[in-house]
Amino acid sequence: MKTTFQILTAPPETNDFSPGGKGKNLFELQKLGFRVPPFVVVPAEVFPEKPDEAFFEKLASEVLQVAPFFQKNKNLRFAVRSSGVAEDGEKHSFAGQFETCLHVPPQNLAEKIKHVWQSGQSDRVLEYRKNQKISGSQAIAIIVQQMLEPEIAGVAFGLHPVSGDRNQKVITAVFGVGEGLVSGKLDADTYIYGVEKIETQLAEKTSAMVFDEKTGAGLIEKDLPPDFWKKPCLAEPQILEIVAALERLEKHFGHPQDIEFAFANDELYLLQTRPVTTLVSQAATSSHRLTSKNDGETIVWDNSNIIESYPGLTSPLTFSFIQKMYEAVYRQFAGMMGVSEREIEGSREVFSNMLGLLRGRVFYNLLSWYRALAMLPGYALNAEFMEKMMGVKERFELTGLPQRTRFQEKIRVANMIRIMFSNLRALPKMRRDFQKDFNETMAEFSKINFREKNAWELMQLYQNFEQTLLKKWKAPLVNDFFAMIYFGVLQKLVVKYKLDESGTLHNNLLCGARDIISTDPIRRCLRLATDIQNDDFAKKLFLEKSPDELVSIFQSKNLPEKIELQISEYLEKWGHRTVGELKLETITYRQDPALFLKIVQGYVRQGITVEGNASEIDLEMRRSGEAVVAEKLRGKFFKKLIFNYFLKNARDLVSARENLRYERTRGFGTVREIFIEMGEKFCEADLISTPRDIFYLTQNEIFEKIRGTATTDNLKKLVELRKSEYQNFEKTPPPAERIRTTGIVYLNNLTADGARQMDEIAPPIPEFPNSPIPNLKGIGCCPGIVRAKIRVVRDPSEVATLDGDILVTTSTDPGWVTLFPTASGILVEKGSLLSHSAIVSREMGKPCVVGISGLLKILKTGDVVEMNGSTGEVRLVL
Hints:
43% of the residues lie in helices and 14% in strands.
């Protein structure tokens, strides 16, 4: 269709035409798959400096020709809205500054376009720009959109707009169109979606704004029947759908969003989205302030990553142990990056407080983490780059940083680059040396009979072993760093070279490595299950006996010799690899073989064998990915050379990363054995009531008791107190994954009516069984499309087999891998492309999606979904 004006029905392909902030966001919403009333945009560049009446008449005529939704229905009414070039940005929304015209009939379209366009030149807009110190373009585009006739409309915020609490979503709604709410003519219901419940504040809604059917002249205020006055505008399913949209938008845009929505014919429509701007001015003094104040320092705590290693409650002994480990690791990392020993030593307080323990759960202290980040060379030159590289999502303005000139900082950066290239060249040898030294240490300690040692000797043994863990960890650190770099570059090259529309080809290319040690337990379990099923006597035992009975049979050597040998070898090599394996209090397969035999029993009962799981899908994915690269880069020698270089190194580094992490598990296993025996010695001395009470004490409390420097003599009473606290922690819901405290941390977070209610540790969002389930989106980690029932699993020790269901959980650690063969797919709420579940699923060729926000709030066991391991999309089927 030939037109005079450039009218946008899709995002512009060049920068020659601007849809403005609001128009750009509407196109983005369409792209994300949200319901948006059909619209077109007249770009800002279309309007001359002084348009006349004829211009607006011709423009309106062409809008009606171009708008496909009008061609289908000549009786439509329009909403004519502004879309300023500087509108709906991260700092300034221009909310309410421009005019909006609703229910515009076609014959009045030219008049209303002119009216809205002229509002962009009004005195109030100029004053707003002046007060907000906004420079740049004053141009506005115009949106012409199909007018809805909603039953309900409202506004929703991705955080509390007053307190800034990100654990809350605030929704306001009215009956009818949203103009009654925006203009303030009508009282609105308010729903605060917290982490314990939905707080509902109902208004008395005696009227609604609706279209005047009689005159067709626009909106009128219409009286509502009495049964609507106290009726909630929104039901719980609708609230949940809005919240899911807010969470998805925040994840996409990187900021909490302020949206306008409407329900028409019981379907949710989004009318606009923009970043929440009301808290920007508060950032330096409230929710993002990380400097001192009279009431103490503000700290942001986060466990979205560390929960994979330390799920659920973590004992005082484990926390005191890992606190020391993390301090040593971060100090070594800083040294690797070129930070001087003097500066590291001067920041001892930062490194010793990288972790926190809140209600028995391990959290990262992001204030300390961020201060450590700020020490790195290059931070002062380009803080934003360093934040992206290290995965920081929020900007924290730190005070008291060392003042250096740009020249000094460039020297530090050059030194860091020199050190890192040196480490990269030496990495293969570093890994070999580390493995050799570590194996020698493990072999030495494996010969020691801890039961023969007294408490003092056990303490000395631990301290000697600790030095191995603390001082020889450079190779895993260097490998981790470069794994992150090379994997990230590989991912970007896939997009840059346009090798794959979805930008996920790198996942296929990393499949089928065959050198990741984490899959060895699975292969051994499958072989064992196959041999049991091929032996009638053993199969009968595993089908009929309980796990405890099987342990007795195994220990009595009444199993076939081949099967007995396989079980013994598994427990010897992999007995420490279990759920929560990095927590010292965890009971491992080696301690309780019944836990392992229960898993094998599940394989036997389900008929899972090596043959049934000897899939070549991972190798097929790898080969297909390589074929795509070869085809797309045919004749492009240098691009192919660069891509293959990063692919080869990414494969090597990612595999080595997973393998080196297993050495940490082995090391922690030895520490566990030492402290278990310490518990026996303390129990024999009547210092504690049972051997496992040792886990309720910290390292220092144990060693000070031995040395004679303890300030608490009655350890039984101390253990009793700790047990009582942990029992309460177990009964109450866990903290949110990200919380903020100011001043005394425990005071702020353990007082229900404290001064900072928004900083309380609060329970999780409740589930609403009858809610409609929106589509979910995460990070695709391993390709494949699966349609099946889901099984929500919170504790894998309670599940013997998934029987082909899709595994749904919060996070996984290496102990979960024995469940993977019984699953048809894997969905994980937390995690990244380099998390354990992502790496192992790629090795096994199991479709996997991680990082799915709100997964366990929305899905429940028995739901049928279709998951796409490439795109990360999860769609409810039934």
